[in-house]
Design brief:
Layout: H1 2-17, H2 23-30, H3 34-41, H4 43-62, H5 64-84, H6 88-102, H7 104-116, H8 119-130, H9 132-150, H10 153-174, H11 185-188, H12 191-194, H13 197-225, H14 231-259, H15 263-283, H16 288-299, H17 303-315, H18 320-349, H19 351-358, H20 360-368
Helix pairs in contact: 1-6, 1-7, 1-8, 1-9, 1-10, 2-3, 3-18, 4-6, 4-7, 4-18, 5-6, 5-7, 5-10, 7-8, 7-18, 8-14, 8-17, 9-10, 9-14, 13-14, 13-16, 13-17, 13-18, 13-20, 14-16, 14-17, 15-16, 15-17, 15-19, 15-20, 17-18, 18-19
Protein backbone atom coordinates (compact mmCIF):
# COMPACT_ATOMS: atom_id res chain seq x y z
CA UNK A 1 0.00 0.00 0.00
CA UNK A 2 2.81 2.39 0.88
CA UNK A 3 4.69 1.59 -2.32
CA UNK A 4 1.59 2.16 -4.43
CA UNK A 5 0.94 5.45 -2.65
CA UNK A 6 4.50 6.59 -3.34
CA UNK A 7 4.19 5.58 -7.00
CA UNK A 8 0.91 7.47 -7.43
CA UNK A 9 2.06 10.63 -5.69
CA UNK A 10 5.54 10.56 -7.20
CA UNK A 11 4.45 10.22 -10.82
CA UNK A 12 1.74 12.84 -10.34
CA UNK A 13 4.51 15.10 -9.02
CA UNK A 14 6.41 14.60 -12.28
CA UNK A 15 3.33 15.72 -14.20
CA UNK A 16 2.66 18.70 -11.92
CA UNK A 17 6.19 20.00 -11.30
CA UNK A 18 8.02 18.70 -14.36
CA UNK A 19 7.08 21.65 -16.62
CA UNK A 20 9.25 23.91 -14.43
CA UNK A 21 12.26 22.26 -16.07
CA UNK A 22 11.03 23.34 -19.49
CA UNK A 23 11.56 27.02 -18.63
CA UNK A 24 14.98 27.40 -20.29
CA UNK A 25 13.79 25.62 -23.46
CA UNK A 26 10.58 27.64 -23.57
CA UNK A 27 12.68 30.79 -23.41
CA UNK A 28 15.21 29.65 -26.01
CA UNK A 29 12.90 27.87 -28.46
CA UNK A 30 9.69 29.88 -28.14
CA UNK A 31 11.03 33.30 -27.20
CA UNK A 32 9.12 33.57 -23.92
CA UNK A 33 10.22 35.86 -21.12
CA UNK A 34 11.12 34.35 -17.75
CA UNK A 35 7.78 35.45 -16.29
CA UNK A 36 5.86 34.01 -19.28
CA UNK A 37 7.72 30.70 -19.17
CA UNK A 38 7.20 30.55 -15.42
CA UNK A 39 3.47 31.06 -15.93
CA UNK A 40 3.28 28.17 -18.40
CA UNK A 41 5.23 26.00 -15.97
CA UNK A 42 2.77 26.89 -13.19
CA UNK A 43 -0.34 25.89 -15.14
CA UNK A 44 -0.47 22.30 -13.80
CA UNK A 45 -0.23 23.75 -10.29
CA UNK A 46 -3.10 26.10 -11.08
CA UNK A 47 -5.14 23.13 -12.28
CA UNK A 48 -4.34 21.16 -9.16
CA UNK A 49 -5.60 23.86 -6.83
CA UNK A 50 -8.98 23.94 -8.62
CA UNK A 51 -9.87 20.29 -7.91
CA UNK A 52 -8.02 19.24 -4.76
CA UNK A 53 -11.01 19.82 -2.49
CA UNK A 54 -13.38 18.11 -4.94
CA UNK A 55 -11.12 15.06 -5.16
CA UNK A 56 -10.89 15.04 -1.34
CA UNK A 57 -14.67 15.15 -1.06
CA UNK A 58 -14.88 12.27 -3.53
CA UNK A 59 -12.38 10.28 -1.46
CA UNK A 60 -14.61 10.71 1.60
CA UNK A 61 -17.59 9.48 -0.44
CA UNK A 62 -16.31 6.70 -2.75
CA UNK A 63 -12.89 5.68 -1.41
CA UNK A 64 -9.23 5.96 -2.27
CA UNK A 65 -8.82 3.30 -4.98
CA UNK A 66 -11.52 4.67 -7.28
CA UNK A 67 -10.19 8.22 -7.02
CA UNK A 68 -6.60 7.18 -7.72
CA UNK A 69 -7.53 5.17 -10.81
CA UNK A 70 -9.72 7.94 -12.21
CA UNK A 71 -7.16 10.65 -11.53
CA UNK A 72 -4.10 8.81 -12.80
CA UNK A 73 -5.94 7.69 -15.91
CA UNK A 74 -7.03 11.24 -16.64
CA UNK A 75 -3.51 12.57 -16.04
CA UNK A 76 -2.04 10.14 -18.57
CA UNK A 77 -4.67 10.92 -21.21
CA UNK A 78 -4.46 14.70 -20.91
CA UNK A 79 -0.67 14.51 -20.65
CA UNK A 80 -0.64 12.78 -24.01
CA UNK A 81 -2.82 15.57 -25.38
CA UNK A 82 -0.25 18.13 -24.15
CA UNK A 83 2.39 16.48 -26.33
CA UNK A 84 0.26 16.94 -29.45
CA UNK A 85 -0.94 20.55 -29.18
CA UNK A 86 0.64 23.47 -31.01
CA UNK A 87 1.21 26.96 -29.61
CA UNK A 88 2.00 28.30 -26.15
CA UNK A 89 -1.61 29.02 -25.16
CA UNK A 90 -2.74 25.53 -26.13
CA UNK A 91 0.16 23.99 -24.21
CA UNK A 92 -0.69 26.04 -21.13
CA UNK A 93 -4.34 24.96 -21.36
CA UNK A 94 -3.42 21.29 -21.73
CA UNK A 95 -1.07 21.46 -18.75
CA UNK A 96 -3.82 23.10 -16.72
CA UNK A 97 -6.12 20.12 -17.41
CA UNK A 98 -3.30 17.72 -16.51
CA UNK A 99 -3.21 19.42 -13.12
CA UNK A 100 -6.96 19.04 -12.70
CA UNK A 101 -6.60 15.25 -12.94
CA UNK A 102 -3.27 14.86 -11.13
CA UNK A 103 -4.72 16.53 -8.02
CA UNK A 104 -6.48 13.24 -7.22
CA UNK A 105 -3.38 11.71 -5.68
CA UNK A 106 -3.04 14.31 -2.92
CA UNK A 107 -5.83 13.22 -0.59
CA UNK A 108 -6.24 9.64 -1.80
CA UNK A 109 -2.65 8.43 -1.43
CA UNK A 110 -2.31 10.19 1.93
CA UNK A 111 -5.51 8.60 3.21
CA UNK A 112 -4.19 5.15 2.29
CA UNK A 113 -1.15 5.68 4.52
CA UNK A 114 -3.17 7.08 7.43
CA UNK A 115 -5.69 4.24 7.10
CA UNK A 116 -3.18 1.37 6.93
CA UNK A 117 -0.56 2.51 9.50
CA UNK A 118 -0.99 2.95 13.28
CA UNK A 119 -0.18 6.34 14.89
CA UNK A 120 3.16 5.25 16.34
CA UNK A 121 4.46 4.38 12.84
CA UNK A 122 2.46 6.91 10.85
CA UNK A 123 5.02 9.72 10.91
CA UNK A 124 7.69 7.52 9.33
CA UNK A 125 5.22 6.00 6.84
CA UNK A 126 3.91 9.42 5.84
CA UNK A 127 7.48 10.67 5.55
CA UNK A 128 8.15 7.88 3.06
CA UNK A 129 4.97 8.70 1.19
CA UNK A 130 5.79 12.42 1.21
CA UNK A 131 9.21 11.72 -0.27
CA UNK A 132 7.31 10.88 -3.45
CA UNK A 133 6.87 14.53 -4.32
CA UNK A 134 10.57 15.51 -4.29
CA UNK A 135 11.48 12.20 -5.94
CA UNK A 136 9.03 13.03 -8.71
CA UNK A 137 10.65 16.43 -9.07
CA UNK A 138 14.06 14.74 -9.09
CA UNK A 139 12.96 12.46 -11.92
CA UNK A 140 11.70 15.47 -13.83
CA UNK A 141 14.90 17.43 -13.20
CA UNK A 142 17.11 14.56 -14.37
CA UNK A 143 15.18 13.86 -17.57
CA UNK A 144 12.89 16.66 -18.74
CA UNK A 145 15.34 19.57 -19.14
CA UNK A 146 17.98 17.55 -20.97
CA UNK A 147 15.38 15.88 -23.21
CA UNK A 148 13.85 19.24 -24.09
CA UNK A 149 17.30 20.68 -24.85
CA UNK A 150 18.60 17.80 -26.97
CA UNK A 151 15.37 16.49 -28.51
CA UNK A 152 12.30 18.71 -28.11
CA UNK A 153 9.77 20.05 -25.62
CA UNK A 154 7.23 17.61 -27.03
CA UNK A 155 9.49 14.62 -26.36
CA UNK A 156 10.09 15.83 -22.80
CA UNK A 157 6.35 15.99 -22.16
CA UNK A 158 6.06 12.24 -22.81
CA UNK A 159 8.12 11.49 -19.69
CA UNK A 160 5.33 12.19 -17.15
CA UNK A 161 2.81 10.39 -19.36
CA UNK A 162 4.82 7.17 -19.26
CA UNK A 163 5.49 7.50 -15.52
CA UNK A 164 1.84 8.09 -14.61
CA UNK A 165 0.69 5.20 -16.81
CA UNK A 166 3.02 2.86 -14.91
CA UNK A 167 1.63 4.08 -11.57
CA UNK A 168 -1.92 3.47 -12.81
CA UNK A 169 -1.04 -0.20 -13.34
CA UNK A 170 0.53 -0.48 -9.88
CA UNK A 171 -2.52 1.04 -8.17
CA UNK A 172 -4.89 -1.22 -10.11
CA UNK A 173 -2.96 -4.30 -8.95
CA UNK A 174 -2.25 -3.34 -5.32
CA UNK A 175 -4.50 -0.77 -3.66
CA UNK A 176 -7.34 -1.78 -1.33
CA UNK A 177 -9.29 0.85 0.57
CA UNK A 178 -8.56 0.86 4.34
CA UNK A 179 -11.43 0.13 6.69
CA UNK A 180 -13.14 2.97 8.55
CA UNK A 181 -14.63 3.09 12.04
CA UNK A 182 -18.39 3.15 12.47
CA UNK A 183 -19.82 6.63 11.91
CA UNK A 184 -20.77 8.54 15.05
CA UNK A 185 -21.83 12.12 15.68
CA UNK A 186 -18.38 12.94 17.10
CA UNK A 187 -16.53 11.47 14.11
CA UNK A 188 -18.70 13.09 11.44
CA UNK A 189 -18.77 16.54 13.09
CA UNK A 190 -16.97 19.37 11.31
CA UNK A 191 -13.48 19.54 12.94
CA UNK A 192 -13.02 23.16 11.83
CA UNK A 193 -15.74 24.22 14.24
CA UNK A 194 -14.12 22.50 17.23
CA UNK A 195 -10.87 24.49 17.23
CA UNK A 196 -8.52 26.59 15.11
CA UNK A 197 -5.91 23.83 14.94
CA UNK A 198 -6.51 22.82 11.31
CA UNK A 199 -6.73 26.44 10.16
CA UNK A 200 -3.42 27.27 11.81
CA UNK A 201 -1.66 24.27 10.27
CA UNK A 202 -3.02 25.28 6.85
CA UNK A 203 -1.64 28.78 7.39
CA UNK A 204 1.78 27.46 8.39
CA UNK A 205 1.92 25.26 5.29
CA UNK A 206 0.95 28.16 3.01
CA UNK A 207 3.76 30.32 4.35
CA UNK A 208 6.36 27.55 4.19
CA UNK A 209 5.47 26.66 0.60
CA UNK A 210 6.72 30.06 -0.66
CA UNK A 211 10.45 29.33 -0.31
CA UNK A 212 9.86 25.70 -1.30
CA UNK A 213 8.38 26.48 -4.70
CA UNK A 214 10.74 29.38 -5.30
CA UNK A 215 13.67 27.00 -4.99
CA UNK A 216 11.91 24.19 -6.87
CA UNK A 217 10.85 26.34 -9.80
CA UNK A 218 13.93 28.47 -10.39
CA UNK A 219 16.91 26.49 -9.10
CA UNK A 220 17.65 24.93 -12.49
CA UNK A 221 17.18 28.24 -14.27
CA UNK A 222 19.49 29.96 -11.75
CA UNK A 223 22.20 27.36 -12.30
CA UNK A 224 21.94 27.56 -16.09
CA UNK A 225 21.57 31.32 -16.55
CA UNK A 226 23.50 32.74 -13.58
CA UNK A 227 26.10 30.01 -13.00
CA UNK A 228 26.38 28.99 -16.67
CA UNK A 229 25.94 25.29 -15.97
CA UNK A 230 24.79 22.96 -18.73
CA UNK A 231 21.19 21.75 -18.59
CA UNK A 232 22.40 18.21 -17.90
CA UNK A 233 24.67 19.24 -15.01
CA UNK A 234 22.05 21.56 -13.51
CA UNK A 235 19.35 18.92 -13.86
CA UNK A 236 21.61 16.37 -12.20
CA UNK A 237 22.26 18.61 -9.19
CA UNK A 238 18.58 19.55 -8.84
CA UNK A 239 17.67 15.86 -9.01
CA UNK A 240 20.21 15.12 -6.27
CA UNK A 241 18.82 17.88 -4.05
CA UNK A 242 15.34 16.42 -4.32
CA UNK A 243 16.56 12.95 -3.46
CA UNK A 244 18.20 14.42 -0.36
CA UNK A 245 14.98 16.31 0.37
CA UNK A 246 13.02 13.08 0.10
CA UNK A 247 15.30 11.40 2.65
CA UNK A 248 14.90 14.46 4.85
CA UNK A 249 11.14 14.02 4.87
CA UNK A 250 11.58 10.44 6.06
CA UNK A 251 13.94 11.57 8.81
CA UNK A 252 11.65 14.34 10.02
CA UNK A 253 8.66 11.99 9.93
CA UNK A 254 10.51 9.42 12.04
CA UNK A 255 11.58 12.21 14.40
CA UNK A 256 7.93 13.13 14.94
CA UNK A 257 7.21 9.51 15.94
CA UNK A 258 10.14 9.53 18.36
CA UNK A 259 9.23 12.82 20.08
CA UNK A 260 5.50 12.02 19.95
CA UNK A 261 4.57 15.30 18.27
CA UNK A 262 4.06 16.68 14.76
CA UNK A 263 3.99 20.38 15.66
CA UNK A 264 7.30 20.57 17.54
CA UNK A 265 9.37 19.35 14.55
CA UNK A 266 7.23 21.62 12.35
CA UNK A 267 8.42 24.59 14.41
CA UNK A 268 12.05 23.47 14.06
CA UNK A 269 11.70 23.18 10.30
CA UNK A 270 10.31 26.73 10.06
CA UNK A 271 13.35 28.08 11.93
CA UNK A 272 15.75 26.14 9.67
CA UNK A 273 13.98 27.34 6.51
CA UNK A 274 14.20 30.99 7.56
CA UNK A 275 17.90 30.76 8.37
CA UNK A 276 18.78 28.85 5.20
CA UNK A 277 16.95 31.21 2.83
CA UNK A 278 18.51 34.23 4.55
CA UNK A 279 21.99 32.77 4.17
CA UNK A 280 21.27 31.91 0.53
CA UNK A 281 20.29 35.52 -0.09
CA UNK A 282 23.46 36.85 1.55
CA UNK A 283 25.79 34.49 -0.33
CA UNK A 284 24.04 34.30 -3.74
CA UNK A 285 26.99 35.74 -5.72
CA UNK A 286 29.43 33.30 -4.07
CA UNK A 287 30.24 29.68 -4.83
CA UNK A 288 28.93 28.54 -1.44
CA UNK A 289 25.44 29.51 -2.61
CA UNK A 290 25.27 26.29 -4.63
CA UNK A 291 25.77 24.30 -1.42
CA UNK A 292 23.15 26.41 0.34
CA UNK A 293 20.77 25.78 -2.55
CA UNK A 294 21.05 22.06 -1.84
CA UNK A 295 20.41 22.70 1.86
CA UNK A 296 17.44 24.97 1.05
CA UNK A 297 15.94 22.34 -1.26
CA UNK A 298 16.14 19.86 1.62
CA UNK A 299 14.88 22.06 4.44
CA UNK A 300 12.03 23.78 2.60
CA UNK A 301 10.30 20.47 1.80
CA UNK A 302 10.68 18.90 5.25
CA UNK A 303 7.47 20.36 6.69
CA UNK A 304 5.01 18.83 4.23
CA UNK A 305 4.77 15.37 5.74
CA UNK A 306 4.45 16.74 9.27
CA UNK A 307 1.62 19.08 8.36
CA UNK A 308 -0.10 16.48 6.17
CA UNK A 309 -0.04 13.84 8.91
CA UNK A 310 -1.18 16.33 11.53
CA UNK A 311 -4.15 17.41 9.42
CA UNK A 312 -5.21 13.82 8.69
CA UNK A 313 -4.94 12.79 12.35
CA UNK A 314 -6.99 15.75 13.56
CA UNK A 315 -9.66 15.56 10.83
CA UNK A 316 -10.31 11.81 11.19
CA UNK A 317 -11.62 9.23 8.74
CA UNK A 318 -14.78 11.11 7.78
CA UNK A 319 -13.23 14.53 7.17
CA UNK A 320 -9.59 13.90 6.25
CA UNK A 321 -10.27 13.79 2.51
CA UNK A 322 -11.74 17.28 2.56
CA UNK A 323 -9.23 18.59 5.10
CA UNK A 324 -6.30 17.30 3.06
CA UNK A 325 -7.93 18.78 -0.03
CA UNK A 326 -8.09 22.17 1.68
CA UNK A 327 -4.49 21.75 2.88
CA UNK A 328 -3.19 21.02 -0.61
CA UNK A 329 -5.41 23.59 -2.30
CA UNK A 330 -4.00 26.36 -0.13
CA UNK A 331 -0.46 25.20 -0.83
CA UNK A 332 -0.89 24.92 -4.59
CA UNK A 333 -2.78 28.20 -4.79
CA UNK A 334 0.20 29.84 -3.13
CA UNK A 335 2.61 28.00 -5.43
CA UNK A 336 0.66 28.97 -8.55
CA UNK A 337 0.91 32.63 -7.55
CA UNK A 338 4.47 32.39 -6.24
CA UNK A 339 6.01 31.03 -9.47
CA UNK A 340 5.14 33.92 -11.82
CA UNK A 341 5.49 36.55 -9.07
CA UNK A 342 8.95 35.20 -8.27
CA UNK A 343 9.80 35.36 -11.97
CA UNK A 344 8.93 39.06 -12.01
CA UNK A 345 10.82 39.65 -8.74
CA UNK A 346 13.92 37.89 -10.05
CA UNK A 347 13.77 39.90 -13.28
CA UNK A 348 13.43 43.20 -11.38
CA UNK A 349 15.44 42.66 -8.19
CA UNK A 350 17.67 39.64 -8.86
CA UNK A 351 17.90 36.27 -7.18
CA UNK A 352 19.53 37.45 -3.93
CA UNK A 353 16.77 39.90 -3.04
CA UNK A 354 14.07 37.40 -3.98
CA UNK A 355 15.64 34.74 -1.75
CA UNK A 356 15.77 37.29 1.06
CA UNK A 357 12.10 38.19 0.78
CA UNK A 358 11.17 34.49 0.74
CA UNK A 359 13.00 34.05 4.07
CA UNK A 360 10.31 36.18 5.74
CA UNK A 361 7.57 33.58 5.13
CA UNK A 362 8.88 30.93 7.56
CA UNK A 363 9.49 33.67 10.14
CA UNK A 364 5.80 34.58 10.03
CA UNK A 365 4.87 30.86 10.04
CA UNK A 366 6.50 30.42 13.44
CA UNK A 367 3.79 32.52 15.07
CA UNK A 368 1.07 30.27 13.63
CA UNK A 369 2.43 26.85 14.59
CA UNK A 370 0.00 25.37 17.20
CA UNK A 371 1.35 24.94 20.71
CA UNK A 372 0.41 21.27 20.88
CA UNK A 373 -0.99 18.44 18.74
CA UNK A 374 -4.70 17.64 18.46
CA UNK A 375 -6.17 14.27 17.45
CA UNK A 376 -9.51 13.06 16.14
CA UNK A 377 -11.94 11.53 18.69
CA UNK A 378 -11.55 8.16 16.96
Amino acid sequence: MLGASVAAQGTASVAINGPAFLIPSLQDHRGLSLAEAGTVAAMPIAGVMCTLFLWGLLVDRVGERTVLLAGLGGTAVFGAVATLVEGTVALAAALFVVGLAAASTGSASGRIVVGWFPPQRRGLAMGIRQMAQPLGVALGAATIAVTAEHVSVRAALWIPVVAVSAAFVVVALVVIDPTRPKATAALTANPYRASRFLTRVHGVSVLLVVPQFLVWTYSLTWLVQERHWSAAAAGGLVALTHVIGALGRIGVGHLSDVVGSRVRPLRWVAVAAALTMALLALTEPLGVAVVLLVVASTVTVADNGLAFTSVAERAGSFWSGRALGIQNTAQYLTAAVAAPVAGVAISEWGYAATFGVAALSPVIALALVPRQDELSPE
